[in-house]
Specification:
The chain is an alpha/beta fold. It has helices at residues 10-14, 20-29, 40-46, 62-72, 92-100, 111-114, 130-140, 160-182; strands at residues 2-3, 34-35, 55-57, 76-80, 86-91, 116-117, 124-125, 144-148, 154-159. Strands 3-4-5-6 form a four-stranded mixed beta sheet. A three-stranded mixed beta sheet has the order 7-8-9. Strands 1-2 form a two-stranded antiparallel sheet. Residues 114-173 form the CBS domain.
Length: 192
């Protein structure tokens, strides 16, 4: 749990149509109101990648990867070797930049020829904060982040869209907790 950040202002709360008395109660108790901190695991729970097989064998053709992109309406896959270990990632960008623009054919090119290798991958652990994940993605201009477990095995994947959904959900939860508190529901621990 974390304290509500100062960006939750009385002005923002006033948009919730709270009375002056309720607003002053929130202002007096802001340091006691808490919400759950969003993590990569929270984002994974909201991710479309959670319910699909987001891996593909690196020896498959790029055509197979593009077919999977289209079938699942996704833009990235984790590449794995015959043993199931992560070897890299392939994205729509890889297809556009390394196949389409160079005049190669997707049916004649193996994924491992164009994928980003695991040694160059940026990954995150399940317990990393959403903010840390966003920082990693923005600093490297990437839209997908493989999640790894304690033994560095791939356990999921999230997109920037998943992180945005998680932040929005966290902000909505914060507003609900503060609103409930201001209305006298559930004390300073949120609604019950």
């Amino acid at each position: 749990l974390k304290q509500i950040q100062p960006f939750i202002t009385i002005n923002m709360l006033s948009r919730l149509s709270l009375s002056t008395r309720a607003l002053s109660r929130v202002a007096a108790a802001r340091t006691f109101v808490t919400v759950e901190k969003a993590t990569a695991e929270s984002a994974l729970d909201l991710s479309g990648y959670k319910s699909i097989d987001y891996t593909i064998n690196e020896d498959s053709t790029v055509f197979d990867a593009v077919s999977k992109f289209a079938a699942f309406n996704i833009g990235c896959l984790v590449t794995v070797d015959a043993g199931g270990s992560m070897t890299g990632m392939i994205s729509e960008r890889d297809y556009i930049n390394k196949i389409a623009l160079l005049g190669r054919t997707s049916k004649d090119t193996a994924i491992k020829e164009i994928s980003t290798k695991s040694s160059n991958l940026i990954t995150a652990s399940l317990d990393e904060s959403v903010e840390d994940c966003m920082t990693k993605m923005l600093s490297k201009d990437i839209r997908h982040l493989p999640l790894v477990g304690k033994n560095k095995e791939v356990v999921g994947m999230i997109s920037i869209k998943d992180l945005v959904r998680t932040v929005v959900q966290e902000k909505e939860q914060t507003i609900k907790v503060l609103s409930d508190f201001a209305l006298g529901k559930g004390g300073h621990y949120g609604s019950e």
